[in-house]
Design a protein that fits this description.
Radius of gyration: 28 Å
Shape: elongated
Structural class: alpha+beta
Largest sheet: 5 strands, mixed
Strand content: 15-25%
Low-confidence stretches: none
Protein backbone atom coordinates (compact mmCIF):
# COMPACT_ATOMS: atom_id res chain seq x y z
CA UNK A 1 0.00 0.00 0.00
CA UNK A 2 1.33 3.43 -0.91
CA UNK A 3 1.94 6.20 1.58
CA UNK A 4 -0.56 8.99 1.93
CA UNK A 5 0.38 12.63 1.54
CA UNK A 6 -1.52 15.10 3.68
CA UNK A 7 -2.28 18.46 2.15
CA UNK A 8 -3.88 21.46 3.85
CA UNK A 9 -6.78 22.87 1.86
CA UNK A 10 -8.76 26.04 2.54
CA UNK A 11 -12.12 27.07 1.12
CA UNK A 12 -13.21 30.42 2.53
CA UNK A 13 -12.56 30.26 6.27
CA UNK A 14 -12.82 26.46 6.38
CA UNK A 15 -9.43 24.72 6.45
CA UNK A 16 -8.98 20.93 6.42
CA UNK A 17 -6.29 18.32 5.90
CA UNK A 18 -6.94 15.93 3.03
CA UNK A 19 -5.08 12.69 2.40
CA UNK A 20 -3.85 11.93 -1.11
CA UNK A 21 -2.24 8.74 -2.29
CA UNK A 22 -0.65 7.77 -5.55
CA UNK A 23 -3.35 6.33 -7.75
CA UNK A 24 -6.29 8.22 -6.30
CA UNK A 25 -8.61 9.06 -9.16
CA UNK A 26 -9.60 12.60 -10.01
CA UNK A 27 -13.28 11.70 -9.55
CA UNK A 28 -12.60 10.29 -6.08
CA UNK A 29 -10.67 13.42 -5.09
CA UNK A 30 -13.48 15.64 -6.37
CA UNK A 31 -16.01 13.62 -4.33
CA UNK A 32 -13.86 13.89 -1.18
CA UNK A 33 -13.37 17.65 -1.61
CA UNK A 34 -17.05 18.23 -2.42
CA UNK A 35 -18.16 16.36 0.70
CA UNK A 36 -15.46 17.90 2.90
CA UNK A 37 -16.21 21.50 1.95
CA UNK A 38 -19.89 21.17 1.01
CA UNK A 39 -19.47 22.66 -2.44
CA UNK A 40 -22.27 20.64 -4.02
CA UNK A 41 -23.36 21.75 -7.49
CA UNK A 42 -20.01 23.45 -8.08
CA UNK A 43 -17.03 22.45 -10.17
CA UNK A 44 -13.72 21.90 -8.38
CA UNK A 45 -10.89 22.65 -10.79
CA UNK A 46 -7.70 22.61 -8.70
CA UNK A 47 -5.66 24.32 -6.01
CA UNK A 48 -4.03 27.74 -5.73
CA UNK A 49 -0.80 28.16 -3.77
CA UNK A 50 0.06 31.21 -1.69
CA UNK A 51 2.42 32.46 -4.41
CA UNK A 52 -0.25 32.14 -7.13
CA UNK A 53 0.70 28.80 -8.67
CA UNK A 54 -2.28 26.85 -9.97
CA UNK A 55 -2.19 23.09 -9.44
CA UNK A 56 -4.71 21.12 -11.52
CA UNK A 57 -6.47 18.19 -9.88
CA UNK A 58 -4.90 15.80 -12.37
CA UNK A 59 -1.41 16.71 -11.12
CA UNK A 60 -2.45 16.26 -7.51
CA UNK A 61 -3.77 12.77 -8.29
CA UNK A 62 -0.78 11.70 -10.40
CA UNK A 63 1.98 12.95 -8.12
CA UNK A 64 0.69 13.73 -4.64
CA UNK A 65 4.23 13.60 -3.24
CA UNK A 66 5.14 16.84 -5.04
CA UNK A 67 2.30 18.84 -3.50
CA UNK A 68 3.58 21.88 -1.56
CA UNK A 69 3.62 21.82 2.21
CA UNK A 70 1.58 25.03 2.48
CA UNK A 71 -2.12 25.75 2.74
CA UNK A 72 -3.75 25.49 -0.67
CA UNK A 73 -6.83 27.42 -1.67
CA UNK A 74 -9.53 25.27 -3.27
CA UNK A 75 -10.39 26.57 -6.74
CA UNK A 76 -14.13 26.24 -7.28
CA UNK A 77 -16.43 27.42 -10.06
CA UNK A 78 -19.76 28.07 -8.33
CA UNK A 79 -21.83 28.78 -11.42
CA UNK A 80 -21.58 29.72 -15.07
CA UNK A 81 -20.75 33.35 -14.33
CA UNK A 82 -17.38 32.18 -12.93
CA UNK A 83 -16.37 30.89 -16.36
CA UNK A 84 -14.93 33.44 -18.75
CA UNK A 85 -17.26 34.02 -21.71
CA UNK A 86 -16.22 32.83 -25.13
CA UNK A 87 -15.39 35.89 -27.20
CA UNK A 88 -17.86 36.60 -29.98
CA UNK A 89 -16.35 36.63 -33.44
CA UNK A 90 -17.96 38.95 -35.95
CA UNK A 91 -18.75 37.51 -39.36
CA UNK A 92 -16.02 39.56 -41.06
CA UNK A 93 -13.39 38.29 -38.56
CA UNK A 94 -13.94 34.60 -39.26
CA UNK A 95 -11.26 32.71 -41.12
CA UNK A 96 -12.55 31.27 -44.33
CA UNK A 97 -11.44 27.76 -45.31
CA UNK A 98 -9.34 27.45 -48.46
CA UNK A 99 -11.24 27.02 -51.70
CA UNK A 100 -11.11 23.38 -52.81
CA UNK A 101 -9.79 22.52 -56.26
CA UNK A 102 -12.31 22.77 -59.05
CA UNK A 103 -14.28 19.63 -59.75
CA UNK A 104 -13.44 19.63 -63.46
CA UNK A 105 -9.80 18.87 -62.65
CA UNK A 106 -8.87 15.25 -62.06
CA UNK A 107 -6.94 14.30 -58.94
CA UNK A 108 -3.86 13.39 -60.97
CA UNK A 109 -3.92 16.77 -62.85
CA UNK A 110 -4.32 18.62 -59.55
CA UNK A 111 -1.39 16.70 -58.08
CA UNK A 112 0.78 17.44 -61.12
CA UNK A 113 -0.05 21.18 -60.99
CA UNK A 114 0.77 21.36 -57.31
CA UNK A 115 3.97 19.28 -57.51
CA UNK A 116 2.34 16.52 -55.48
CA UNK A 117 2.48 12.99 -56.73
CA UNK A 118 -0.40 10.65 -56.18
CA UNK A 119 1.73 7.60 -55.62
CA UNK A 120 0.46 4.12 -55.02
CA UNK A 121 0.35 4.56 -51.23
CA UNK A 122 -1.72 7.74 -51.37
CA UNK A 123 -4.09 6.18 -53.89
CA UNK A 124 -4.50 3.17 -51.57
CA UNK A 125 -5.23 5.51 -48.66
CA UNK A 126 -7.81 7.43 -50.67
CA UNK A 127 -9.48 4.23 -51.82
CA UNK A 128 -9.62 2.92 -48.25
CA UNK A 129 -11.04 6.27 -47.09
CA UNK A 130 -13.76 6.15 -49.75
CA UNK A 131 -14.60 2.54 -48.81
CA UNK A 132 -14.73 3.57 -45.15
CA UNK A 133 -17.23 6.32 -45.98
CA UNK A 134 -19.37 3.77 -47.82
CA UNK A 135 -19.09 1.20 -45.03
CA UNK A 136 -20.28 3.79 -42.50
CA UNK A 137 -23.23 4.69 -44.69
CA UNK A 138 -22.00 8.24 -45.32
CA UNK A 139 -22.04 7.74 -49.08
CA UNK A 140 -23.90 5.20 -51.20
CA UNK A 141 -22.43 2.61 -53.54
CA UNK A 142 -22.94 4.75 -56.65
CA UNK A 143 -21.17 7.77 -55.12
CA UNK A 144 -18.34 5.50 -54.02
CA UNK A 145 -17.95 4.26 -57.59
CA UNK A 146 -18.01 7.84 -58.97
CA UNK A 147 -15.33 8.99 -56.54
CA UNK A 148 -13.10 6.10 -57.56
CA UNK A 149 -13.61 6.97 -61.24
CA UNK A 150 -12.58 10.58 -60.53
CA UNK A 151 -9.34 9.38 -58.95
CA UNK A 152 -8.34 7.47 -62.07
CA UNK A 153 -9.27 10.08 -64.71
Amino acid sequence: MSEATLIKVRNGSDERSVALYSGIGTDELINVLTATFGVYGSTIVGFLTENGTVIPLSMATRSPEVMPNTTLKLMVLHDKKDVLPVPKIEEDQRVQPPIPPTTNMSASNYAAENNNELNEDSLDQLLRFIEGLRARGLINKEDCHLLKELLFE
